[in-house]
Amino acid sequence: MDAFPGGGSAITTILVVSDTATSAAWCRDVLGAEVNRTYGSSPC
């Protein structure tokens, strides 16, 4: 049986935060996450 997840699979999530730089740094530094893509932010 192949390992799960198979090649080419990724787990993604979208977070809505007020301070994107601090949130990305925390996810990267604490959780070991890798930032693959960013989107522009605008205040609501």
Structural features, described:
It is a single chain. The chain is an all-alpha fold and 44 residues long. Helices cover 27% and strands 0% of the residues. It has one helix at 20-31. The longest helix is centred in the middle third of the chain and has 12 residues, at 20-31. It is elongated, with a radius of gyration of 14 Å.
Residue share in helix = 25-40%
CA-atom Rg in angstroms: 14 Å
The amount of beta strand, in percent, is under 5%
Q: Pairing-aware structural class of the strands and helices?
A: mainly alpha
Largest sheet: none
Number of DSSP E strands: 0
Gross morphology is elongated
pLDDT averaged residue by residue: 77
State the end-to-end distance: 48 Å
Number of helices: 1
* Helix-strand topology string: H
Oligomer: single chain
Ranges where pLDDT stays below 50 over 5 or more residues in a row are none
Short structural description:
This protein has 44 residues and is mainly α. It contains one helix and no strands.
List strands and helices in order, with pairings.
Layout: H1 20-31
Record keyword descriptors for this entry.
single chain; 44 residues; mainly alpha; elongated
